[in-house]
Design a protein that fits this description.
The structure is a single chain. The chain has 145 residues and is of the alpha+beta class. The protein has a domain at 26-124: Sandwich (Immunoglobulin-like). The chain is 21% helix and 42% strand. The chain contains two helices and eight strands, in the order αββββββββα. The protein has a four-stranded antiparallel β-sheet, with no helix packed on it. Strands 2-8-7-4 form a four-stranded mixed β-sheet, with no helix packed on it. The chain is elongated. 12% of the residues are buried.
């Protein structure tokens, strides 16, 4: 009985070790996984570029980039990224609501792999109406008359 248990244990360990060594490695490296826009005005779109590198040995394709809401818009190249080469994923955020925001962007590549990045910041409410009158212009008008 002990020999049978030892045999099954050895087989189970071999299967686990083999699964770990044959798992597909990460081939997409992201230079930064988070970007903080800081404080931005309401209604003014902002953008950031996430730099990605193919660390694998074969060309890699970014198949899709999904965002956590419609206020975040991604753009990326559909061309294969050669081994060792870099590309950029442009992420735009349109600050419609005021307050803190945190959005997740999922970069999908090589058909079934993904990597997440995040943008964040705080939106301050833009003043309603036009800009306040510049008092120095009134002063100049008075001096010229």
């Amino acid at each position: 009985m002990k020999k049978l248990f030892t045999l099954f244990s050895a087989i189970a360990i071999a299967v686990v070790l083999n699964a770990q060594t044959t798992a597909s490695p990460e081939v997409l490296s992201v230079k930064e996984t988070e970007f903080n826009f800081g404080t931005i005005p309401q209604g003014k779109p902002v953008f950031h570029f996430f730099e990605v590198t193919n660390t694998g040995t074969d060309p890699m394709v970014i198949s899709n980039v999904q965002t956590s809401c419609g206020c975040t818009t991604p753009e990326w190249s559909k061309e294969p990224i050669l081994p060792g080469a870099t590309s950029k994923v442009r992420v735009g955020y349109n600050a419609a609501g005021e307050g803190h925001f945190e959005k997740t962007i999922t970069i999908m590549y090589n058909q079934n792999l993904s990597k997440q990045v995040k943008i964040m910041g705080t939106v301050w409410k833009a003043p309603a109406g036009s800009a306040p009158e510049n008092s120095s212009i009134s002063l100049l008008k008075q001096k010229n008359n």
